[in-house]
Prior knowledge:
Layout: H1 3-6, E1 14-16, E2 19-23, E3 28-33, E4 38-41, H2 49-58, E5 66-70, H3 82-86, E6 91-94, H4 99-102, H5 111-116, H6 120-131, E7 144-145, E8 159-162, E9 171-175, E10 180-184, E11 188-190, E12 197-201, H7 210-216, E13 225-230, E14 236-239, H8 240-247
Parallel strand pairs: 4-5, 5-6, 6-7, 10-13
Antiparallel strand pairs: 1-2, 2-3, 3-4, 8-9, 9-10, 11-12, 13-14
Bound molecules: zinc ion.
Zinc ion is lined by residues 75, 77-78, 185, 231-232.
Organism: Halogeometricum rufum
Protein name: Glyoxylase, beta-lactamase superfamily II
InterPro entries: Metallo-B-lactamas, NDM-1-like, RibonucZ/Hydroxyglut_hydro
Amino acid sequence: MSSTSNRIHVPDRKVAEGVYRFGTRRINWYILEGDEEVTIIDAGLPAHWPQLVAWLDENGYELDDVAALVLTHADVDHVGFAKTLASQNVSVYCHPDDLPLLRSHPQSPPRWYLRNLWRPRFFAYVLEMFRDGVRSVEPLADVDLLSEGDVLSVPGEPRVIFAPGHTPGSCVLFVEDREILFCGDVLATRDIFTQKEGDPQLLGAADEDPEEAEASLARLEGLGSVTLLPGHGNPWYGDIDTALALAR
Ligand SMILES: [Zn+2]
């Protein structure tokens, strides 16, 4: 096993049919396979890049087989190697309401970061982000835009569900035929402040607009049985309405 695969601390990258989990135990991003090419969902931090290169190589893909990067939102820990992919002519998708954020990296830590640094496990997460290049995340100016209801013509053909609140342009990506829901930071299964794994939950103090974040959960109602794949924490398997009830 390579050191990069050790770092994720999960037994297997495969979390659903044709879906693989990367990053570290604190931050997730995913590969979604289509028929011949792949879509990357979120871009972690710059130091995660070798994980992508190694996986493509081990699985018979070339960098050219990466058809798109879709960002659930433009927080720095989800934009990591986006610029590197963009420079390889990979299309990057983001909701227009997160473009100001996407164009602002690297930026000073937000106030809620500073207020929570006294928490030892949050501090450890911040140290990890520095180690993995959070200060070298590059801004992106020109990207393809996501909007509510789009079914993206990228591998896996995810449908966009606009769910603002964590950030103004947060989106959830639903792969209906495989019942996979990439929820970004709309829901997490790991508390970023205590770093404890748990049930689906809102991010609370890390949400830009907590009220709007909670209201957006209604947009996910009735999607049925899903594999919920968050930006932070382990996969959760079950009925989305149960996940929403737990989060509320
Ligand atoms: Zn995040």
